[in-house]
Amino acid sequence: MVSSPAFWAVLLAVLPARSWAVSLRQPAVARATPSVPQHLLSVDRKHNASAATDAKASVASNMSAARQTPTLHTVTSEQVVTAVFSGKEATMNKFAVNFGAGDGVCMIPGGCSQADALGHGDPVYALYTKWGFGGLAVEGNPQLLPALSFNLPAVNISKIASFVTPMNTVQLLQAAHAPLDMDYFKNDIDAYDCAVLYSVLKAGYRPKILQLEVNPEIPFPINFGVNYSPNFKSNLGNGGFYGCSTTLAANIAMPFGYDIVGVSFTHDVIFVRKDLLPAPGLKSLTILEAVDEEAVCCMAPTGIGHFGQMSNYHVMNQLRPEPQKMLAAFTPVVAQSCQFSQGTTPNCLVPYTVSLNAVDFITQYEQTIAANGR
Length: 374
Fold this sequence. Notes:
Elements: H1 5-14, E1 20-22, H2 53-65, H3 77-84, E2 95-99, H4 114-120, H5 123-129, E3 134-139, H6 145-151, E4 157-161, H7 169-175, E5 184-187, H8 193-202, E6 209-213, E7 223-226, H9 246-253, E8 258-264, E9 268-273, H10 287-297, H11 313-317, H12 323-342, E10 352-355, H13 359-371
Parallel strand pairs: 2-3, 2-5, 3-4, 5-6
Antiparallel strand pairs: 1-10, 6-9, 7-10, 8-9
């Protein structure tokens, strides 16, 4: 058990306190997208939806146990749009991008819940259907494209079945004629989310509002992020090896001119471009404040989530005053979760970063993109 005192004593004594970046060491092999039976779509997460039935059941269990408790700064897409564009409606281009669109409506495709009814379903749906936004909705599972097209029939919304990667983000955006300053950008692919985010911002896009899925089980101040690999299997979050930490997402977005203004279900963080702040009812949050609100709004009270028995957020968070010890303790957890979720024991073949410095992720990103031919 990760929470065993003896385990911690041995672990902290033997592990080096340093940044860790794991590199892809073998040639990438393209994966075929398997069929997803219709009866499983209700628990199927987005983008690289290719895990086995037991993984789907595990995620459904984790989500049912997860806390959905509004915090002081829990907001919806509509609330943020209303605040940001209050009195500035003429500046809107009403273009929204939805990477990881699912069926266009629900948090979990085909399985809307109470949170969806409260405005925390797919955040872009209301913008498309109530606010008259056009834009681009991309979903990696082609079996969801008919539902996506049915739910978003407007001709000014491009519905695309495609994996979203750092290698194709610019092409997808350009093909849809996305403005550089689109009003809304949502990224939720349960994969290498921060790599996709960085590729968009690096290319010169500056959406007014960013809604980014994060991995809430990574405590502050760890910069954790999965980097791009064609081999990556989302595994529906089973094992915790997906996405990136709130800390890393913030450390990527903030240098491009963004502030955190809130959190949203199921585990998203919302940023607004600084030149659009202050805005009525919104407060700029520190990274630490956002991490703490994520822990309240969007995690199981026990602190055990997708990592299962490999980690406990509350136990890890006790090491916050000693970041190097936290890093040393968390590093083997991520290594184990990678091997478990990717099925590549005893080695992890997908690049990722666990560090106290976000620059380590960017450096690895550049190396990974170069290694994959761009």
